[in-house]
Automatic annotation (TrEMBL):
InterPro entries attached to this UniProt entry: AB_hydrolase (IPR050471), AB_hydrolase_1 (IPR000073), AB_hydrolase_fold (IPR029058)
Any Pfam family hit: Abhydrolase_6
Upper taxonomic lineage: Bacteria, Bacillati, Actinomycetota, Actinomycetes, Kitasatosporales
Protein name, UniProt field: Alpha/beta fold hydrolase
Annotated organism of origin: Streptacidiphilus monticola
PANTHER family attached to this UniProt entry: AB HYDROLASE-1 DOMAIN-CONTAINING PROTEIN, HYDROLASE, ALPHA/BETA FOLD FAMILY PROTEIN
């Protein structure tokens, strides 16, 4: 999941579509929302958390999908335990360390400092600034409301700080991309404000 996201921040409409033809398992990494433990402060630590979760379930091989920060962690999972990952989906993300990767607009950094992200923050980060994009974004957020009203899932402040530390310290997987020998689907918005599509193109 993306930074400051939990299992209940996945749009249920997306999960239902995926689950129509396969088993779908979502999880919160160590120290995140309902998961115990200490939140990792490195990307490799987050990848190791995913690997430990997969192995704890006794699964021999899985398809892994990650979005934004989760997309980086998904790549780390495949690089650190290639025997576990059959296929990889990297959504709205980057390997990081991409040469000449464009920097995000200043408003992105401002939003990351907000103690709580409201509708306008999510709409700016994840949806086009058009009437159609805003309508789609609000519909998605209202679907999330149903799940979050029941679970009250949220990322703890210390976990969010750990995620930001992990991102800041990460030099990237870009130089290791040739090690990925499995099928990889890369999906990104053409005008993603957080992670410019140039970075996804380079995966």
């Amino acid at each position: 999941m993306h930074a400051r996201g939990t299992t209940d921040h996945w749009d249920p409409e997306l999960l239902d579509a995926l689950a129509a033809e396969r088993e779908v398992i979502v999880f919160d990494n160590r120290g995140t929302a309902g998961s115990t433990g200490v939140a990792p402060t490195t990307i490799d630590g987050l990848a190791d958390g995913a690997i430990a979760f997969i192995r704890a379930l006794g699964l021999q091989q899985v398809d892994v999908m990650g979005w934004s920060l989760g997309g980086i962690v998904a790549q780390g999972t495949a690089l650190r335990a290639p025997e576990l990952v059959r296929r990889l989906i990297v959504a709205g993300s980057t390997p990081a360390g991409v040469p000449n990767q464009p920097t995000p607009p200043p408003r992105v950094g401002e939003i990351l400092t907000h103690a709580v992200n409201g509708d306008d923050d999510y709409l700016y980060l994840f949806f086009p600034e058009t009437d159609e994009g805003r309508a789609a974004g609000l519909a998605s957020l209202r679907r999330l409301d149903t799940r979050l009203a029941r679970s009250h899932a949220a990322v703890q402040d210390e976990t969010y700080r750990a995620q930001l530390a992990a991102i800041a310290a990460f030099s990237g997987y870009y130089d290791r991309l040739p090690e990925l020998k499995l099928p990889v689907l890369v999906a990104n918005g053409a005008h993603d404000v957080m992670i410019n599509s140039y970075a996804s193109y380079r995966i």
